[in-house]
C-alpha cells in the first residue's frame, strides 16, 4: 500500500499526543510508532554505535558566507550585550517579539554564557588507533571511484568527529543568533512566493503584531496556487527536520548540574512550549506531522537504496573484516524490516512532472541543500553545527536517492556504477540522520506518557 502525499495533508487527531489516522489510506501514526519503536529504533541505535557509522568527517571551520559579522550575536564570543538593533534581521525586529527575545533569551549572565560555550563545544578526542585507521579508510575510499564531490569532504579542514562522544542535546544555543539561522533557511531557501509572511521563530507562538497567528507560513504555502507540490514538500521537510532537532533538545535537556556529573533528561515545559497545540495555537500538531512526513520520506529512500547495499562487493570498510561483515548484516536487517513495512510514501506523485521539469527540480533541490549546508556554517555553536550539517546531508542524500530511481535500478551487480554512487560521508549522514528521526519518534512516545502522567 502506498501512501500518497495527500494522506499527510489531512488533519490527524489533535493534540501533541497526535493520535489517529493521518490520512484516508493507511498512514496512521500508531502503526508508524509501533514499527519504529520496536523494529527500527533498537537496530538503528546499534548500527550507529558501530565504527563505520560513529565517525563522521566534517569541516566545522568554514566561515559563515552570509553574515560575516555574526560573531557579535553568537554565543561563541560570549558577548553579554544583545545584538545591536542594526544586526537583527528585519523579521525578528517587528512587533513585541524583539523585546521578548532579548529579555528571555540573550545571555545576560557570564556564567550562563560560559556554560553554553562549554555545552556546545566538540569533544574531539580520538584514539591513536582510530587516527591510524582513518588513514587506511581514506586509502580505501580513494581507491573507489567517486563522481560526486562535497566541499566538506574534500577540504583539508575536514576532520573526523566521534558522534558518540558528542551527543545531540541541549547546548544553551538559542536567541537571535539561532533564529537567524532558521529564519534564513525558511525565508530564503524554501521556494516560497515573495508575498509570504516571515515565520520568525517558527517554534514560538507568534507574538509580533505583523504576524497574524491564524495565518501561518505553512497554511500560506499550502494555499499558494503558484507553488507546486514538490516545493511544498520541501518546506515540510525542513519543518520536520526542525521539529526533530527540537525534540532531541527537549528530551536531552540539562536538568541539573550536580557536583560530580550533569543530569540530562526530558523537559516537559520546553516540549509543551514547542508542540502543545494550546501553547502554539495549533502549530505544534502540524510540526509533528511534518516530522512523520519526513520520516516516511527517508524511510522510502532507504527502501529504494537497499539494492545498492545488497550487492556483495559493497562493504562498509573499516579494515576489520569481521566487524565490517557484522555491520553490513545489521544494515541489511534494517532494510529487510523496512521492506516488510507496508506503509510507504508514494514518491511518484512527487516527482511525476515532465522529464525536463524533474531534472530542473532535482538540480534546484540539490542547490538548496547545498545552500542550507552552508547556512549551517553560520551556526555559532559547534555541536549544533555538527548535527545540523549531518542531518541536512542525510536528508539531501535521501532526496538524491529518490531522484535516482532509474540509476539504482540499473546498477551493475559486480562493479561500481557511474550512474549512482554514495560516498562514505553520505552513507554515514544518511543512516545517522534517519537514526535521529527514529530517535525523535521514540522520544515522542516518552513525552506522550509524561504528559499523561502530568495531566
Ligand atoms: C572527551 O571524551 C573522553 C572520552 O569519553 C573523556 O575522557 C574526556 O574527558 C572528554 N573531554 C572533554 C573535554 O569533555
Ligand atoms: C598517541 O600519539 C601521540 C603522538 O604520536 C603520542 O604522543 C601519544 O603518547 C599516543 N597516545 C597513546 C595513548 O598511545
Ligand atoms: C542561499 O542562502 C542565502 C542566505 O540565506 C540567500 O541569500 C540566497 O539567496 C540563497 N541562495 C539560494 C540559491 O537559495
Ligand atoms: C487573522 O486574519 C484572519 C483572516 O484575515 C482574520 O479573520 C482574523 O481575525 C485575524 N486574526 C487576528 C488575531 O488578527
UniProtKB/TrEMBL annotation:
Gene Ontology molecular function terms on file: FAD binding; protein-disulfide reductase activity; thiol oxidase activity
Keyword tags: Disulfide bond, Electron transport, Endoplasmic reticulum, FAD, Flavoprotein, Glycoprotein, Membrane, Oxidoreductase, Redox-active center, Signal, Transport
Cross-referenced Pfam families: ERO1 (PF04137)
Subcellular location(s) of the protein: Endoplasmic reticulum membrane
Active site: 381 (nucleophile), 384
Alphabetical GO biological process terms: protein folding in endoplasmic reticulum
Paired cysteines (S-S): 73-78, 113-148, 381-384
SUPFAM superfamilies, A to Z: ERO1-like (SSF110019)
Membrane topology value: Peripheral membrane protein
InterPro entries in UniProt: Ero1 (IPR007266), ERO1-like_sf (IPR037192)
Chief localization: endoplasmic reticulum
Sites where the protein binds FAD: 169, 171, 182, 239, 242, 274
Essential cofactor(s): FAD
One GO CC annotation: endoplasmic reticulum membrane
Family: Belongs to the EROs family.
PANTHER family (alphabetical): ERO1-LIKE PROTEIN BETA, ERO1-RELATED
Protein name in UniProt: Endoplasmic reticulum oxidoreductase 1 beta
Encoding gene (name): ERO1B
Amino acid at each position: 500500500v502506498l501512501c500518497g502525499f495527500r494522506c499527510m495533508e489531512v488533519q490527524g487527531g489533535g493534540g501533541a499526543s497526535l493520535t489517529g489516522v493521518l490520512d484516508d489510506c493507511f498512514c496512521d501514526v500508531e502503526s508508524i510508532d509501533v514499527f519504529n519503536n520496536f523494529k527500527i529504533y533498537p537496530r538503528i541505535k546499534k548500527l550507529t554505535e558501530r565504527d563505520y557509522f560513529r565517525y563522521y568527517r566534517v569541516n566545522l571551520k568554514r566561515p559563515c558566507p552570509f553574515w560575516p559579522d555574526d560573531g557579535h550575536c553568537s554565543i561563541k564570543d560570549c558577548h553579554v550585550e544583545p545584538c545591536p538593533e542594526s544586526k537583527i534581521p528585519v523579521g525578528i525586529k517587528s512587533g513585541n517579539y524583539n523585546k521578548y527575545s532579548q529579555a528571555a533569551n540573550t545571555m545576560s549572565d557570564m556564567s550562563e554564557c560560559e556554560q553554553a560555550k562549554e555545552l556546545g563545544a566538540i569533544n574531539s578526542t580520538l584514539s591513536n588507533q582510530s587516527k591510524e585507521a582513518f588513514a587506511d579508510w581514506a586509502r580505501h575510499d580513494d581507491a573507489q571511484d567517486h563522481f560526486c564531490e562535497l566541499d566538506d569532504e574534500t577540504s583539508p579542514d575536514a576532520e573526523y568527529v566521534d558522534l558518540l562522544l558528542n551527543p545531540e542535546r541541549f547546548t544553551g544555543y538559542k536567541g537571535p543568533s539561532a533564529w537567524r539561522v532558521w529564519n534564513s533557511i525558511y525565508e530564503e531557501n524554501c521556494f516560497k512566493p515573495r508575498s509570504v509572511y516571515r515565520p520568525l521563530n517558527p517554534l514560538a507562538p507568534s507574538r509580533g503584531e505583523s504576524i497574524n497567528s491564524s495565518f501561518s507560513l505553512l497554511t500560506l504555502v499550502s494555499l499558494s496556487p503558484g507553488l507546486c507540490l514538490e516545493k511544498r514538500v520541501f518546506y515540510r521537510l525542513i519543518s520536520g527536520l526542525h521539529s526533530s532537532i527540537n525534540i532531541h533538545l527537549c528530551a536531552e535537556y540539562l536538568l541539573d548540574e550536580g557536583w560530580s556529573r550533569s543530569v540530562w533528561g526530558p523537559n516537559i515545559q520546553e516540549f509543551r512550549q514547542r508542540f502543545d497545540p494550546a501553547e502554539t495555537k495549533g502549530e505544534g500538531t502540524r510540526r509533528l506531522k511534518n516530522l512523520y512526513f519526513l520520516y516516511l520520506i527517508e524511510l522510502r529512500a532507504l527502501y529504494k537504496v537497499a539494492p545498492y547495499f545488497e550487492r556483495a562487493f559493497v562493504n562498509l570498510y573499516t579494515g576489520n573484516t569481521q566487524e565490517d561483515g557484522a555491520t553490513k548484516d545489521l544494515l541489511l536487517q534494517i532494510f529487510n524490516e523496512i521492506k516488510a513495512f507496508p506503509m510507504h510514501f508514494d514518491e511518484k506523485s512527487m516527482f511525476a512532472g515532465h522529464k525536463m521539469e524533474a531534472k530542473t527540480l532535482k538540480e534546484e533541490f540539490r542547490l538548496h541543500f547545498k545552500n542550507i549546508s552552508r547556512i549551517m556554517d553560520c551556526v555559532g555553536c559547534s555541536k549544533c553545527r555538527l548535527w545540523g550539517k549531518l542531518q541536512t546531508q542525510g536528508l539531501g542524500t535521501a532526496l538524491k536517492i529518490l531522484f535516482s530511481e532509474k540509476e539504482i535500478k540499473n546498477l551493475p551487480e559486480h562493479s561500481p556504477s557511474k550512474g549512482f554512487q554514495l560516498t562514505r560521508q553520505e552513507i554515514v549522514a544518511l543512516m545517522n540522520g534517519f537514526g535521529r528521526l527514529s530517535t525523535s519518534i521514540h522520544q515522542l512516545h516518552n513525552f506522550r506518557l509524561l504528559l499523561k502522567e502530568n495531566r
